[in-house]
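Batch manifest line 394
LIGAND: guanosine-5'-diphosphate
JOB: complex structure
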Amino acid sequence: MDLFEHQAKELFARYGVAVPRGRVAWSPEEAEEVAAELGTTVVVKAQVQVGGRGKAGGIQLARDPAEARRQAERIIGMDIKGHVVRRVLVEEASEITAEYYVSILHDRAGKGFLAMASSQGGVEIEEVAAATPEAIVRVAINPLVGLRPYHVNQLVFGAGFDGRARKGAAEILARLYDVLLGADCTLVEVNPLVLTADGQVKALDAKVSLDDSSLFRHPDLEALRDTFAVDPQEQAAKERGLNYVKLDGWVGIIGNGAGLVMSTLDVVAQAGGKAANFLDVGGGASAETMAAGLEVILSDPKVRSVLVNIFGGITRGDLVAQGVLEALDRLGDRVRVPLVVRLDGTNALQGRELLAKSPSEKVVTAATMLEAAAKAVELAGAPGAAGTIGKEGA
Ligand code: GDP
Ligand code: MN
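JOB STATUS: finished
ARTIFACT:
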């Protein structure tokens, strides 16, 4: 689970990591209030879980509360790389002298933690890694030893931090390590860590990934999850206990088994389409789950066709077909787009026969995955989709 910047900064503050004063605002009015409380020039920052907000116009300076309100009006509702902004962070603006990068993360290959620092902060670290890998200092941390002052020195001196920034940066690195351990994070990242004109060092941006398997130890952090379900389909899927991830295409996908669903996404792409979602209904795939899954997918207005891809193992094809038919029955008019069903494996033949008897003209069957994907893409009416793949089957 990734935290939003404002949540990550609240967590940082609890552990004594220096961050600018500020607060989240859910409306332009609230942004104005926060700016008035802070009583200084502020930055209004779009809260979305994607980098490059600055470049996208999602970070703006505001000299007074009225301007903060206007900037929040512009930013809330903005679409940044497919993420709609619902809230902004309003915080005191900093006068930046230097921008650095620091992070500590789980290093699975190294069987420990990895701390990194660079004096080329403020830009995407992947770009730095690609162009000038030597500009990133990496220090492996043995969890049994912990982050020691000599590690910290290697980082701040190795990365060539300004003399005025070293003490503050060292303090922040030590506190970030406390955050990593204390909140069971898999990653804490600050980009940029800044040195301000008046000599302060603080975390201007904050990224935190929590270890989902440890959330039970942190009920306070688990509670933050509630504020995440802003997407109506993801909210609906969560309520129905479905394993659903929304994507930005137009072909809805249902399959049984995560591996099968993943390869379904691939064949849809191969057929010239783009998946609208990932949805794994798991082993059972009862009529209940089928209906719930279809309901969630069909409520996404972007969906122009649905591909149901089931491979019967323990799951019997005839039962799945029954599930699909019952779901169609239950959803009635809400089934507004074609449904391409590919059934294979145990009792697939019986299943297909059942589906063939369906009175719904929305149901189309297919024998192979590629055929099903091609049909789903074609029926969705995607540009240049029809007949883009051969009849070789899969
Ligand atoms: P990101 O682009 O999504 O990673 O958002 P960041 O929080 O990292 O901000 C991007 C850039 O905006 C920073 O690298 C800064 O250059 C600039 N920025 C953010 N906050 C401030 C601020 O308080 N003052 C100034 N002068 N620049 C800021
Ligand atoms: Mn950043």
